[in-house]
Structures are given as structure tokens and as C-alpha cells.
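A further point concerns the way the authors explain their paired sequence and structure data. Nothing conveys this as quickly as seeing an actual entry. An entry of this sort, consisting of the sequence and the corresponding C-alpha cells, reads as follows:
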Amino acid sequence: MTALDAGGVVADDRRRPLRGRRPLLPGEDVRLSLGLSVAAGTAIVAFFTFAAFASPDVWVPVIVVIFLVAASVPLCIWLSRGDQRLLRILLLALVLKMGAVGPRYFVNEVVYQGSVDATRYDQAGGVFIEGVAEGRWTLGESELDGFPSQTRFVGYVTGLLYLVFGTSLAGGYFVFSWVAWLGLLCFLQAFRIAFPNAPPYRAALLLTLFPALVFWPSSPGKDALMVFALGLATFGVVSLLYRHRPGVGCLLGALGVYLLWSVRPHVLLVVGAGLACALLARSAPRRGEQGASRSIGVRLVLLVLLVPALLLSLSRVDDALTGGDDEQFSLAATLDNTAASTEVGDSSFDTQGVRSVVDIPFAIVSVPLRPFPFEARSPQLALSSAEGVLLLALIALSARWIWMVGPAALRTPLGAFAAGYSLAFVIAFSNIGNAGILSRQRVQLFPLLFLLACAARALYDERLEARASETQTDGDRPRLGRPSPHPEPELAWSRT
């Protein structure tokens, strides 16, 4: 409706307050401002009182958590784009990721009494901070001084994070857990770029709420950095292949590749295998695109960049596995040594690395699912086997459409990248015979496996919609005889 103002001009209803919002009465704005000021002042006084009587190891993590949550909530709102269901999933994932720090800290610092990598990285970060205060950007006399360059790099990253968030072991747990959470969000965004019309809920649930991805990368160390780096690399690859903001994707992907090359260069080789498969995937150009020539040009550029990256990774892997000396690198000997060194302790089980094509089917089952429940001889093995049981349950629940992983790997760049990466990862890590080590390493596999499964479901839904459209088109034509007594099934793509 419209109304005439004093000058006879039609007044627009858009000047009225939005529905559901009541204008403030006289004096209410003053009382509201006064109340907010009192609340803020009380919070500040309470915090400094708490900080005066509490140890920095207590109040520094509190500041870190407040800062991380304050930065993450707007990010979740922006990523959800008004989708309340997706927003709830992302916020729940943030709460669980921060909450996983408690059990992870308890296991490392109480059960293992601090004899873990996270404690060494924390000590190296503290030494780095002390050196920066004296003008030295080195790890000095830290415990990581004699370790390989990949391990020392994580120590430098820990020190740089401590420069921003403060020196605190518990705070470091929260920061690294948050970094891994950001990497999982990158995986989710990669799926949304590849399949913009598919519902993102299944991918969000699998990527951010799967127990292994919530628990393991929640402490200072390589696991959290690798999840973050793989997320960046996957986002960059998908952005370039699907030509969605390629500039941003190239920058983030380059950062992910650098982190992979610095922390675990052999995983960069696995990423290269996935990228090679993605470049070979057949994908029809989308509506509104200029054609296949531009796609071929992008893939040629990626292929040119892939070759030197793989060569650099091979040199880094050679140095890492031979210790930088002049002895010749032997892949078979390295696999045998890895199997022998990991099949020790209460969490060990017998394994066999991939030596030929015949060994691949068993490795495809063994790496994601082992140890099996009947191999659980200790609490650690029982917890690790529970991951495999949960994964099998998810596969059983998805039996109606999981067979579409083959077409997804052949027809979509994201599916091909995820399938190639997963297969190369299974081959590379098939020789690990320790449940604890394998469980931590699998956090580098599960995100890509879940992306492959979600790509399969997206193709399955597209096939159903195409069949429904054809059926509806045929139904518009005149028919002879009585109509079918069976109505067409309702397609609800948002249903998970």
C-alpha cells in the first residue's frame, strides 16, 4: 500500500520498519546503550580479575578460544549464504572441533605423559618466541634441532602461530584444531564449486563431523597442517578446473602445495597423481561457457605446472627417506623398512604393501578399514576398528547410489581427482602396520573419499531429475487409455 505525504507525493512503503521489528520508544535506545556498556564493562573487569589470579596457561587459552569463535561465526554465516540448516551444521562442527581439544589433550598429556610430538612442537615454538625477542628467527636449542627439515618446519609454524595467539600449550591445541577446521571448510567449498546445484548438507556432515577428522587433527603437529594444506590444494585445483575465481584458487592452491612440499612431500606426489587423473576426466562444458578450448588451455597450464612440482617432490622425498646422504633410494627397501618399523607395539597388525596390481584390491579394503574388529587386541585397536565399522555402515546406507563412484570418477574433474588421490594414497600407505599411525594418516584420505562419495550422489540425483523430466515431458503428450495408477515419485534433492 501507499500513502500521501504532506506535499501530495506518494510515500513508499519501503520506508516503514521491517516486519517483526518494533521501533524503539523514547528512552529505550539510551537504556539499551547503557545496558550494553554495563555488560561490556562487567565482562572486562571479570576477565582482568580472572587473569590476575589465574595462570597464563589458563587465561591465554580462554582468549584464544574467544578470538577463534568470534572470527569463525561470521565465516560460517558467510559460507552458509542464508541457509540455516548449513549454518547449524557448520556451527556444530566448530563446537565439536573446539571440544575435541579436551580429549586430545588428555590422551597426549595424561595417558602418554607428554611423550608426544605435540609437546616437542610446543617447546620448539617457545624457543622460537624467545629467539625472536632477541632478534633470532631460529629454533635455537630446541628438541627439534636434530630432526629433519620437515619436522623443523612444523616447529617454525608453531612459533609463528604463537607470535599471534600467545605461548600456551593448550592454546596451541585450540589453534591447530581450528586450522584443521578451516581445511575441512576448504574441502566443502570445493564440492560446492564443482556441484553448485547439489545439496551441501551431506558433504558438510561427512567432512566436519566424522569422528576421525574431529579428533585426530586437534593438536600441534603435522596432521592438522596436512588437513589444512590438502584443503587448500583441493580448493585450488577445483577452482582452476571449474574456472571459479581462478586467481583466488591459484593463490590458495599454491599455499597448499607449499605446505605439502614442506611437511610431507610424498603426499604432494599423491596429489599430483590425483591432478593427473582430473586432467584426463571427461566433463562436458557447462551452459554459458565458451566451449572446450578454454578448458583444454587451463588443463595444459596445470599439466605444465604439475611436472616441476612432481620433480621437486621426488627430490624432497629422496632427501627425507635417505637422510640427505649419497646412498641410493630404493622404494621396495623403504616399504619393507616402514612395514617392519610400524608393526610393533600393542597397536600393531600384520600388513602387506602393494607390490603389484594383484595387491591393490586388498589394499583398498585394508587402508581405510583396518584394523578389523576381530584384530582388536587392545583398546587402541578397538577404537581404530570402530572407525572402519562406521565407514562400512555409511557404505551400507549408501548402497542405493554408491555404485555411481565409477561414473563420477570418469565424468567429473572433482571425482577423478578424489579417486586418483585415494588410489595413490592407498598404494603409498598400504605398508603401515600400526593402528595408531594409520588412524592419524587416514585423516589425509577421508576428506577425498567423502568428496568422491558426494560427487557420486550428486550424479545420482542428476540422473533421477533427468528421468523425472523425461517422464513429465512424455506425460504432457496426449495418451490413449486410462492414466497410470502409480504417481511419479517426488524428488526432494535437499533430502539427505
